[in-house]
TrEMBL record:
Pfam families: ABC_tran (PF00005), CbiZ (PF01955). PANTHER family: HEMIN IMPORT ATP-BINDING PROTEIN HMUV. The keyword NADP does not apply. This is Adenosylcobinamide amidohydrolase. The keyword ATP-binding applies.
Length: 488
């Protein structure tokens, strides 16, 4: 739809946009991102014919922009500018109707029923029909933005150029506007080129993203390729972190504030234990990965609760019941990782390890009456579940990548299975050595300071410490459990 070939352009003979070459496909959304002053608006002005290139060419539907008359170009391209102030006191309907001007016919330039219909449809689409007769001057910034979008859509353009379209819009209207554009793009094969400052909007909605830096192409491609922390950090000179969207296969970019942090130490974590709960309290938030009922998955927490429940505990909504329990402590469930167990908490094994530059605190409670061999559990009938859980807590100093968290979980699980083997805990159904119980949980909590670790496999210093600590704590917990229940 649009071909940009070795394009250079700017003001007063000085280039701002330098030697750009790329294509924009029909029926797609292309986002232009880049820091302030990187030439985004200048590029947009050249695409819509407002600014002539110093060299190179822009082809629209195969024809140079300079060969189009202003009216012909207005029939193809609609523009939603960045600062669209209106000094005239038009009504909303009149402003939207201006979008139809290129289609007015006859000497008197009168509108047709089709023009009226398009004005109405565009107002409905953008949700501005309620204030159709109000003055544009009396609207809020966000409302005005939607009116101007309605005007652009009324033009039935093939190409829509948007300069920061979500500026002024609240969260709901940002999403509505982008969803609406996506609809138009898919339904009417509209081609959208949008300057976006919000990297996450660009990631969620664009098919292609151009990253400009100092007027030059730094990168162009799918959002998944452009939303790269290193690439963006270099261009924006800001600390960023790429995360995966929890529900869509789209990356998100999180800002990382440059705040000064106190040094986090494992020895500052304090354990308060009773028959009812083991509560580890940290003066700082720790990054967690866990399979816990409360605060499972990745998160940040400062409180870690291993709660004892009766072996007949049965609740339809254990999550809500547990949250209510935490509030009664009182503990904030949003800052907590919470597990439960029917095992006796006084049987817990707690171990500290400081070795090879690794500092780690581990704790485990262990009930093994429901021991299972993971390789043989397929032989079990549904519902053959007894009570018994091994809950493992690992607190460590270090900066773990996501993959290191996963590795740490694997290492801990292998060490747990090894302890069960050495204590000859058997799966009562298959008679083979158990690898765990059917309801085990594990939490890894890390200070995320100091040495960065991208691997925590069994022969790394961290992996060795985890394996050793888990083997010892699970073993201690089993020994204590056996002392009290000699036949198990
Ligand atoms: N009319 C003009 N005359 C002279 N220089 C200009 C003009 N418009 C923009 N510039 C300069 O061109 C450079 C790029 O500006 P441009 O508006 O294209 O950047 P941008 O990437 O859109 O920035 P922003 O994110 O701040 O909107 C800036 O240094 C700016 O000062």
């Amino acid at each position: 739809m649009i071909q940009i070939q070795q394009l250079t352009g700017g003001y007063d003979g000085k280039p701002v946009v330098k030697d750009l070459s790329f294509s924009i496909e029909k029926g797609k959304i292309t986002g232009i991102i880049g820091p302030n002053g990187s030439g985004k608006t200048t590029l947009m002005k050249m695409i819509n014919g407002m600014l002539s290139p110093q060299s190179g060419e822009i082809l629209i539907k195969g024809i140079p922009v300079s060969s189009y008359s202003a009216k012909d170009l207005a029939r193809i391209i609609a523009v939603l500018p960045q600062h669209a102030e209106s000094s005239f006191d038009f009504t909303v309907r009149e402003v939207v109707a201006l979008g139809r001007y290129p289609f007015y016919k006859g000497l008197l330039k009168q509108s047709s029923p089709k023009d009226e219909e398009m004005v109405q449809r565009s107002m409905e689409f953008t949700g501005v029909q309620h204030f159709a007769e109000k003055s544009i001057q009396s609207l809020s910034g966000g409302e005005r933005q939607r009116v101007l979008l309605a005007k652009a859509l009324a033009q039935e353009p093939e190409i829509l150029l948007l300069d920061e379209p979500t500026n002024h819009l609240d969260l709901s209207y940002q999403m509505k506007l982008m969803d609406l554009l996506k609809d138009w793009v898919q339904g009417c094969q509209l081609t959208v080129v949008a300057i976006l400052h919000d990297l996450n909007i660009a990631s969620l909605y664009c098919d292609q993203v151009l990253l400009l830096d100092g007027g030059k192409e730094k990168a162009i491609g799918k959002p998944g390729d452009i939303m790269d922390s290193n690439l963006l950090e270099g261009v924006y000179d800001t600390k960023l972190s790429r995360q995966e969207h929890p529900q869509k296969p789209k990356p998100l970019i999180a800002l990382v504030p440059a705040e000064r942090e106190e040094q986090k130490k494992i020895e500052d974590i304090k354990l308060q234990a009773s028959n009812e709960s083991m509560v580890f309290r940290s003066p700082y938030f720790l990054k967690t990965m866990s399979s816990a009922l409360i605060g499972g998955g990745f998160g940040w927490a400062n409180t870690f609760v291993n709660r004892h429940v009766d072996r007949n505990y049965n609740c339809d909504d254990a999550h809500s019941e547990y949250e209510a329990y935490l509030r009664s402590l009182p503990v904030n469930p949003n800052e907590t990782v919470g597990m439960m167990t029917a095992a006796r908490l006084e049987d817990a094994g707690v171990v500290s390890i400081e070795k090879e530059g690794i500092k780690l605190l581990a704790a485990a409670t262990s009930g093994t009456s429901n021991a299972v061999d993971a390789a043989q559990s397929w032989q079990r009938k549904a519902g053959s579940v007894a009570v018994g859980t091994i809950n493992i807590w690992l607190f460590l100093e270090g900066q773990l990548t996501d993959e290191a968290f996963v590795q740490a979980m694997m290492t801990a699980t292998e060490a747990k299975a090894s302890a069960l083997r050495d204590y000859e805990i058997k799966d009562p159904i298959s008679g083979t050595m158990a690898t765990g119980t059917s309801t085990d949980s594990l939490c890894i909590a890390s200070t995320q300071q100091g040495k960065r670790m991208s691997y925590a496999g069994t022969i790394t210093p961290m992996g060795k410490a985890i394996g050793h600590a888990v083997y010892q704590t699970v073993g201690k917990a089993i020994e204590n459990y056996r002392k009290r229940m000699p036949r198990s």
